[in-house]
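FORM 7B: Structural annotation worksheet

SECTION A. Query
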Amino acid sequence: MPTEISPSNILLQTSDGPHGVRGTAFFNGPTGCLFPSATAMGATFDVGLMYSVGTVLAAEAKEKGCQVILAPTVCLQRSPLIGRGFEAFGEDPILSGTMASSYVNGTQENGVAVCIKHYAAHDQSTMSIEDSIRVTERTMREMHLLPFQLAVKHSNPWSFMTGYHRINGVHGSEDPWLIEKILREDWGWDGLVMSDWFGTYSTAEAINAGLDLEMPGPSRWRGELLLWAVMCRKVKERTIDARVRNLLNLINKVRPALAYTPDGETGDTLQKREVCRRVASESIVLLKNEKSVLPLDPSTRRTYGLIGPGISLPAISGGGSADLVPHYVSTPLDAITGVVGEESHVTIPGTEQTGYSLEWFHEDPREAADQEAIHTTTTTQAQMYFADSLPANVPSRYWLRVVTTYTAPKTAIMQFGLCVLGKGKLYVNDDEVVDLFSSQPPKTLQTPMFNQASMEVTAEVSVEAGKQYKLTVLLKNESVSAGVGALSAGGLRVGCCEKLDAATALAEAIDLATKVDVPIIVAGLNSDYESEAIDRKSLSLPPAIDELILKVAQANPNTVVVTQSGCPITMPWLDQVSTLVHSWFGGQETGNGIADVLFGKVNPSGRLSLTFPRRLEDTPTFLTFGKGQRDVMYGEGVFLGYRFYEKLLRRPLFYFGYGLSYTTFDYSNLQVNDSIRLEKEGDNFSISVDVQNSGSRDGRETVQIYIQDVDCIFDRPLKELKGFTKVLVKAGQKVTAWITLDKYALSYWNEDLEQWLAEKGTFRVIVGRSADPEDELLSKTIELEEDFVWKGL
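SECTION B. Predicted structure
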């Protein structure tokens, strides 16, 4: 029987969810379906696939007792350095808003709410609570608000999350212009607005501005403070009623999820796996295939050399709230060896053990050995972050002992590492090898647990094959630097890897490359480099990776390079590599997605959702991204991403929208009306173009429509993406692709009129394979007969 829902038993649960539903706990929560990063989702350019993603996320949410998914992220990546840039769909507002709309519809049509974020113009990840951005209204309207606007128009997200920072001097969580004026008045939206976690900074200001819900609980700014604000009439009772009404409306919308009882397969289902694998394979972008090495033929007797850290330890996600423990991980090593007919049983050193035992104590267990543990549990997670997961009976100050057994797979020197949130020590067979208790090294890189943990410290230990070693971590959740009384939830990460001599390892890789037909390198960034709470300082790959790629490619011209990252990276070796694939952060199906593309099971159709620059100095925000004395200037204006590179004639490595296929497509017969009138809401116009598959393989092609405003007196981008569609074209066949455009395609925000203006005059409709001016295939001019001015959606 369904659970009866009454006000007394309602518990509304939220969960992080851009790439999967983690549930309600960072530590020892249930496993989940982990999708590729949002930049990978954006690279599919497939709105139907995003609807399927939303459907899977809704199912996972209900199974985990959650009714609100804190996703999608639709802010644009001003800079490729942004730490959590991988969480958002891309650099273009039309792509981001369109993909988000489908994602939202797939989720909410299955009874689970989304909370679209971070409203608005979220930029830096490093201490964004202190940031104050300066930005024009035109830039906000045309770029940073537009993805949210499109999502409201096409999918009506049931909740919004505000950002941490100030916009022109006012925090987003207490900005009536942002919440009441734009969101509720201009767009007519009537959902719930919540703050980001600890992103509320006031009582009366936030409530009067339209912030319905302070997150997380228990409240710091409401409760007794709100009572005083009402008593002194800083907040009116009718304002409280409005805030409460929005919360009750959200509860009513998610009632089916609140009453959910499973009626079929749950957990790690085949249907979820298939959707995840489709996203992984269809997001992969073929960047170079000059020697036609790809696709590889598994039926041909060839040898493959698998090289690089990503072969057995691929990057499946960025770090922070978007991360979760997946149901499983498909590695490139297992997937590729499976394709070529060999069996592969690979074990990462140490992970063959049953896991870790945890014991909490009141006192130091070394000094009070006879005391009983307050609480005990086990985990298989090497990272243990207790922010929301401490057992109820564990006090605010505690000691924790973690024990596991490591069985050496070979005789070697192993590096055992530890980082802690608090104070800690690592012991191997009761010998202390790492001390993070009395002091900790200064931070030079970002660290786990939202950059709160210490720098990792490693110790070298000689081990013998087959021999077991007892590993013990002792943790006290007390800060080293702040002294006694400065407590945290606590956490730790323990790990190990074989110590390698860099020169020897490189020589071995080069030697292997000369002995095989096709070397395959998988390497790039991971969650240690791209993570919430801190931004990158460089676009470079980790140390020695560039040299590895260059030397292996020089040793064998058939080398296939597979890069992984959520946001752009530099490629100083690009001219020396003939075959290059970018596979993003691939989620739990990383290995299968890569193998599907390399061996031709899937014809690559991914297109870059971000422009890849040649160097950091070329980026539009090079001088304005980072910490200034007070303000962050959005000086690039509307010239973000590809708009900037084309306007300044500054060629990047690869433009937004770029991607190759194993087949070829020819475009012809561009059809659009010569003249257009926009007289009322709902007026639109259609564009059609014929796409011929002139190759020998079936393939999917993304048809991209860009618009250039020829006559506008204001400084506008040379062209902007305004529509796209993805079509399947079988080998030798032709299809007609249709794209419908409306007032959004022809208008810009006019700050004098304080409205959107589609200005009478000439426009160019451009069909392109990417935003690259050299990829413009067909164009036709159209005339807008009269000005059209509008507000709202």
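SECTION C. Observations
The domain at 11-258 is CATH 3.20.20.300 (TIM Barrel). The longest strand covers residues 699-709.

SECTION D. Sign-off
Analyst initials: ____
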